[in-house]
Amino acid sequence: MSETLPGRDTEEPRPAALRRVVAASFIGNFVEWFDYAVYGYLAATIALVFFPETSPTAGLLATFGVFAISFIIRPVGGVFWGHFGDKVGRRTALSLSILIMSVSTFAIALLPGYERIGLAAPVLLLLVRLVQGFSAAGEYAGAASFLFEYAPKSRRGVYTSVVPASTATGLLFGSVLVTVLTATLSDDQMAAWGWRLPFLLAAPLGLIGRYIRTKLEDTPEFRALEQEEARTRTPLKETFLHNKRAILVGLGVACLNAVGFYTLLTYMPTYLSSELQLDETASFLSTTVALCGYIGSVFLMGRLSDRFGRPAVLAAAGIVFALLSVPMFLLVGTAGLVGIMLLQLGLGVMLTMNDGTLPSYLAELFPTRVRYSGFAFSFNLANALFGGTAPFVATFLIHSSGSNLAPAWYLAAAGLVAALSISLARGISPRDPVRTGKPSQTATPVDTTA
Question: Model-level pTM?
């Protein structure tokens, strides 16, 4: 039975095929960011295991330093996976990246600590994190491009918002799991073996995600390029020669996602417990509430971007963060647990204005021939410069300035940069699904499980 429905201008995938595409994108992205969540939430424990001979602050900085260094390779990974995805196919790139990520994440659970092998322990941790960063570089952009090119044109915003939703679900699962572990295990048990348990889950989850992806055909737009013999042989060269402005805009807009995501949804439990002296379990509980609000509202923002346009929603997000970050952090420092939960929830919803719109916006900035390359490079460069460093920068700024408001000023600056970047995008119109110089043809979406 055909997996497509006839439309006025093109054929659209049947609901069953779309559901499988959504499931494949969701679970892969979930696995990738579950690891990042667990590492961030267990930062204090990991510091004890791998950096025991330093002060608590130095150990925490070292742990977040390893977290940040793993992002340095993200732009390199973005170039590799973007080139691979534009030349060979989105599905093949995604199937390979999730396999590499799952194996490297599982390997963290098996690493010996400092007490057993000394300095070799943090070195091995860094090497594994570099492999993870390389793999993750292809996931977000690939999953978003995959969904964008399968989704009906009028609903691309809401469909691609599945990507940030799955990312936040990975964080949520990590937060819940770490909350349960910290509430049921002693500090000694957590340091001895408890911290390893979340990383062990990567292997089975990753294999499930890879299996689902291998059962799907590549996107209609990519196969249309194949039919027209219009795939570029040099995606990387074409990306940088003809899409410089789009890359710059993408980098600026993704800046708010990078800083906001890793500050509010990864670093925040450490901030609440280490800087504001909130109970560790309560810190994770508050972040869990914020993640639930984030997941619920991110689809709404994707839908609003379909209705009112991506630039309007993204510009509003930047302005809101520029104006409200510092006042809301001031309130967090004086509120009780319920107040902190409500404020974190508000910050999470604010972030979805950017994150729910960003995937479809970045996908529209680049033509199909180099969509994966342009998206992956600009997004991963932003995350390397501003995302992976956010916990480290926040911790450093707090202890160098003596002010707990330092992360808020960092967020406000990122919001301003994102808002200004939208103004630079004038004249860069959304690209047609297939830009080949030949009459556009539409490939029939095929699901090999049919």
Answer: 0.81
**Cβ distance 220 to 444 under 8 Å?**
yes
Q: Which two tokens stand for residue 289?
A: 């509430």
Residue with tokens 């869990």: 288
Architecture in CATH of 13-424: Up-down Bundle (1.20)
Polymer length in residues for the chain = 450
Please give the C-alpha separations between residue 178 and each of 30, 54, 157, 246, 328, in angstroms, as whole numbers: 16, 24, 32, 39, 26
How far is the C-alpha of 371 from the C-alpha of 362, rounded, in Å?
8
Per-residue pLDDT reduced to its tens digit, 174-220: 878 888 888 888 888 888 888 899 888 878 888 887 887 877 787 88
HSE-up of residue 219 (Cα within 13 Å, Cβ side) = 31
**Torsion, CA 416, CA 310, CA 303, CA 433, rounded to 10:** -140
H/E stretch holding 382? helix 371-382
Tokens found for residue 368: 């199909």
In angstroms, rounded to a whole number, what is the distance separating the alpha carbons of residues 119 and 66? 14
The tokens for 68 are 């940040």
* All structural domains of the chain with their residue ranges: 13-424
